[in-house]
Write a structure and sequence with these properties.
Layout: H1 8-26, H2 33-40, H3 44-50, H4 54-77, H5 84-101, H6 104-110, H7 120-148, H8 156-177, H9 183-207, H10 220-231
Helix pairs in contact: 1-2, 1-6, 4-5, 4-7, 5-7, 6-10, 7-8, 8-9
Length: about 230
């Protein structure tokens, strides 16, 4: 039987799918390079043809998920006929729905070890992938808001970076919830997380020159839904 040779990008996508499934099953630190080779069914040389390292594969997964989210969210941030604040709030609200649909909580649970000191560089790289992709959209949106007289800031790009920094911090807060030893401690951790989200919302309002409560933040119910999936 003639061997079917798949296009490089098709095979690369398959390896990413197989690796993600393994990370979700076992957790990032519990998957070795040999495990990845075994599930992909390829020799080490072929794996390195696609990804120079396990860390490069994780970066590729982050790039893919960020691109998929960006494809859905950019039209929301760019909606014509709406004010900059309406577009920002629509985009922030849609971000939660998109990430839930993409399985972000489960992926956070699988990648908790990325927050340990020895994986800090890789986690920083993943955050940067998302921020670099969305920065131009947020910068333009905030610039539009300044021009409309809706926002008041002298540094639209810097404000966008701060908003994205709050989102990255939320991911850390959610991971910390996993360390809660019992239901009481978990409720306290959720309380603290919701309080911090409220603070981030007020900070966003103030750096945009808006009244407190103007921008959308996650509700307690939404946080609990994410935590439930992370712990599943």
């Amino acid at each position: 039987m003639r061997r079917v040779v798949k296009p490089r990008e098709v095979r690369r996508a398959e390896v990413l799918d197989q690796a993600l499934a393994l990370f979700l099953e076992r957790g990032y630190d519990n998957v070795s390079l040999n495990d990845l080779l075994g599930v992909a069914g390829i020799p080490k040389g072929a794996f390195y043809h696609y990804f120079p390292s396990k860390e490069a594969l994780v970066s590729a997964l982050a790039e893919r998920s960020a691109a998929e989210a960006f494809e859905v969210l950019r039209p929301v941030f760019d909606q014509p006929g709406r004010t900059a604040l309406e577009r920002l709030n629509a985009g922030l609200a849609a971000s939660y729905d998109v990430k839930m649909a993409m399985g972000a909580p489960e992926q956070i649970a699988a990648m908790t070890s990325l927050l340990t000191p020895h994986n800090q560089a890789l986690f920083t790289r993943i955050v940067a992938i998302w921020e670099d992709l969305f920065r131009p959209v947020l910068t333009q949106l905030i610039t539009d808001g300044v021009n409309e007289g809706v926002f008041d800031t002298f540094d639209p790009e810097g404000v966008g970076d701060m908003i994205q920094g709050f989102a990255a911090r939320l991911q850390r807060n959610l991971v910390q919830l996993l360390d809660a030893p019992d239901a009481k401690a978990r409720r306290k951790a959720i309380d603290d997380c919701v309080k911090r989200i409220k603070l981030h919302g007020i900070a966003t309002d103030r750096i945009l020159g808006l009244p407190d409560g103007s921008t959308v933040v996650l509700s307690r119910k939404q946080v609990e839904a994410m935590v439930a999936l992370i712990q599943a």
